Amino acid sequence: MFTGLIETTGTLLAAKSSGGAMRLVVAAPQLAGRWRIGDSIAVNGVCLTALDMEDATEAHPGRFAADLAQETIERTSLADLQTGALLNLELPTPAGSPLGGHVVQGHVDGTGKLISLVPLRTDLGSSDWRMTVEVPAKLAAQVIPQGSITIDGISLTVAKIHQPEPDGSLRIEIAIIPHTYKSTNLHTKMAGEAVNIETDVLSKYAAQRLTANVAATSEPIADETAAAAKSRTATSNWLTTEYLLENGY
After folding, report:
1. What's 2's DSSP letter?
2. Which of 148, 160, 227, 237 is most buried, by CB atoms within 10 Å?
3. How much is the CA Rg of the chain, to the nearest whole Å?
4. pTM of the model
5. Exposure b/e, 150-180, CB count within 10 A at least 16 = b
6. In this structure, is the dihedral angle defined by the CA atoms of residues 174, 177, 180 and 183, taken in order, positive or negative?
7. For the chain, percent helix, then strand, then coil, each to nearest 5?
């Protein structure tokens, strides 16, 4: 697993398509000597397997290759990146290490769109930034104010949620501190670009549990009395602040 704290950035050297799949070649000199073939590396929030350089006459410890399956191509923005793109990189978190961000699986749920990224002060070197991202409708129920979200592999906090758009998508606002802006690929992003989104894994389980409870309590049961039906419906309101605190959320 990952935490969404970007360790360094790398550069996309090449993207080669073959038979519906794709192979990326990434320059990551800051990670040299810290990974082995077969290790996981999060690239813009996507958990990929590091492979050796093919057709290499000598070792390239500062470079690795990674294959994208069709599912990854369709679900993420990696296949749309151009050579030279700056990539957010993170190695897995060792067991027992402090979690500085939040639990990030590297399993991207879908792509959103960067609407804007604007400075809050005139001094760009020290300014905070306000980022607005459009989240697709299928992920809207998993995003909450002050909740965690991963954008291109970066652990961030949702500061504000706007009213849903007619198509069900959401626009969310996120505060970006100067360190995050400078140390990740955010300073290279342009409005309209696709970004990888992974919602908080806890919100996924909560949403699934809620859906299951609603389905179980909404269907009538044969020969059930009105009082029993009322009691059963009341138990469906299980997702409370007290429940979340008691269960470690």
Report:
1. B
2. 148
3. 21
4. 0.81
5. bbbbbbbebeebeeeeeeebbbbbbebebeb
6. positive
7. 25, 35, 45
First and final C-alpha spacing in the chain: 18
Q: Amino acid letter at 139?
A: L
Asked if residues 11 and 26 have their Cβ atoms less than 8 Å apart, the reply is yes
Place of tokens 């879908």: 110
Q: How far apart are CA 138 and CA 119, in angstroms?
A: 30
Residue 49 has φ and ψ, to the nearest 5°, of -100, 125
| CA–CA dist 183, 179 (Å, integer) | 6
pLDDT for 218 equals 57
Structure tokens at 37: 């073939």
Residue type, 126: S
pLDDT one-digit tens code per residue, 64-91: 999 999 999 999 999 999 999 999 999 9
**CA 76 to CA 22: how far, in whole Å?**
13
